[in-house]
Structures are given as C-alpha cells and as structure tokens.
Design brief:
The chain is an alpha/beta fold. It has 14 helices and 17 strands. The strands form five sheets. The chain has a five-stranded mixed β-sheet with strand order 1-5-6-7-4. A five-stranded parallel β-sheet has the order 10-9-8-11-14, sandwiched between helices. Helix 12 packs across helix 14. The chain is globular and about 70 Å long.
Length: 398
Amino acid sequence: MGSQRKNRELYLDSEALATLRMCKEGILSPVDKLMNEKEAREVDETATYKGQHFPFSFILAPSGNRNEEVLISVKQGDILDIVVNDEKCGELIVEESFKIDRLKRVEKIFSTTDTAIKGVADTLSRLGNYAVSGEMKINSDDVKFYKQKIIEQKELLGAKDATAIMLSAKPFHRAHERMIRIALEKSDLLVLFLLKPYNQDLFTYELRHKTLKYFIDNFLPKNRVIIVPFENTYLFAGLDSIVLDSITARNYGCNTIAIGQNHKGIGMYYDSSGTKSIGDYFKELNIGINMDIVSEFVYCNECKTLVSTRSCPHGRHHHISYNTELIYELFKVGVLPPAVLVRKEISAIVLSALFENRFDGLYGKFTNFFPGTGLIEEMNEEQFYMQIINLHQTVSLT
C-alpha cells in the first residue's frame, strides 16, 4: 500500500493568520476570499470589489525562501498546509499563484515607499514576491465568538444603535473616558475595539485591557459596553485606516463609528471639484455606517474641568492637552501623571504593573505613614500607590 502524499506547507506569521481569520468570518466583507491576479489588479485600479468600496487588493504574499519555492511550483487544486509557529492552523486549496510588485503593493497601502516610515519597512520585510489565491479552511472561532457576542447583546438590550470606537488606550486617560461617555449617551450599545498590535511594548495588551475593564466595571453601565480584541494588522496601518476600521465595525454589527478629531486619517482631501472633508469623502464611499467625529478634549485651567476645544472660550495657553506620548513617557520613568490627565486608580494599576515589586519591604515599614482603620492592614502594590496618590490630593495644605 502506497503512502499518502504529504501536503506542502505555507509558513505565515500570527499577523497574517489574524487577517485571514477576519476575512473568513466576513469581517472584511465585501472581501470574502484571497483575490486572484485579475481581481487584485482591478481592485487596485478601481478601489471597488463586488460593487462596494475597498481601498486595495486583498492578497496573501508571505516572505521567505521556502514559501517562494512552494508558490512558484504550485498548481491549481494543490493543497497547502497553513503553518504558524510550527503548528498547522488550516489549509489553502490553490486557485493560482502570481508574481507581485512589492513596492507597488506597499505604495498602494501607505501612499509611499519611504522605508524610514516604520509601517512601510515592516510591511516590506514580511512581503514576498509571489501571492496565492484559493479557498481557505481555517479556524476563526475567536472572531466568530465576539461577532456572536455583539449580536446576542444587541438582542438582549433590544439595541437599535451600536457604536464602535477603535482604541489603543496606551495609556487610557481622561479624554478617552469622555469620548466613551459621549458615544454611550448616543447609542444603546458601545463596542470598544481594543487594538492588539504584534510588536508589544511596556503597555501590553493585557495591561491596557485591565485598565479599560476597570473603568467599565466601576464607572459605566457595563452591560452596554463590550471590549473586542482587535488584531491590528498591517492592513490598518496606512492612510485608509479609517475606511477599513469602518468596514470592520460595520461587519461586526455596528451602525456608527466614533472617531477622534485628532485621528491621523482626518484632514482635508482635494479633487477636481475642490477641497472636501473626511466626512464628505466618507459619504461618497457609501460604506454603510455613520461616522461621528468627536471634538478634541483638553483640561482648561480657567474652566477647571475637561472641555471640548469647540466649546471653551479660553485660549490654547489655558489648555492642558491629553498628549498620549507625554503621559506614556511619565509612566515609563515611573512618574505619577496628574489626576486631571489620568484617573488615579488607572495610574495605580499601570505603575504597579510596570514597576513590579518596587515597594518590597516598605509596606510594613511605613504603616504609620498612611491613615487607616487602626487595624494592621496588608497592602499590595496597587493599594500602596493609591495611598500615595491620596496624600497627593490632600487639599487643605495645597
């Protein structure tokens, strides 16, 4: 009896796998498959697929010598095992393979080929010379779970409106809180897509999820808010990120997407008929979801509160900006951000995670430093930070 012929293997990274899972589960609809050469060329020329807008072709062109050898030699009907981190995750039944222009592909996504831009350099490094199309058999249960969760929660609430916010929360600050509350006031259900990049740093997905969940559990009607982990793949890194975010939110069941006024993709566009805002451009695309552009928020030292730049009468010199990079750097060096920028509980969660065991041996040593119940109380790192923060906020001597 002859041995069975072993399928050849296609080696992908986790980012490519996540993108395929979104496609398989309809999150990128109208795209529902890997495009062949003819389809890819047409989409790149017209930004249209199956009569709907899609900014560029959806192809799979993995890098690596092993992958290139396989893709050069495959024939229609061949089955390729999809392998990620040495584990088989699915199969691809080959329709065709075809050569691509890597630079044109990157330029289509980023509108530049400048490798000084990190997204461009990263995408080029993981992009091969050949693409493959065909039917995928792949497990997308994680995507399916959250898609179904949104459907069930909408039914439970009788929700007519569901709003999406794409959020990195790196770090989560007061302006994020205000944007979330405004969106929740306008909608029956709020879906927070928490970005999950593949290049992790100090602010891991788990830490950002913990801060966001703390805020929801303690300060919002939590049955009306859902956190969805969103795989932040290279597709969403270019100038069309707002469009792709909107397509994704629509396919998860949302009818509105809330975008901050200072989002990188918001600006003015220009065509033969004159300048247009992102709102005008968005309406023309007819994606099937509403866009709500939220004003920039600042802390005004005259108003003594968080305000919109559109409603505050005081000049910029009275405003404290919610600069995420500055707040990030404060946390990075272990400095406590002012409570007007970051809620104290959030700061305690972040600092205790970034500087683990920082206060070993101090808890018992400085028991009398903090007010208490009179009983011997044990503290963890978060509670220790909270006690220090509370002393910072003693008002009679400040």
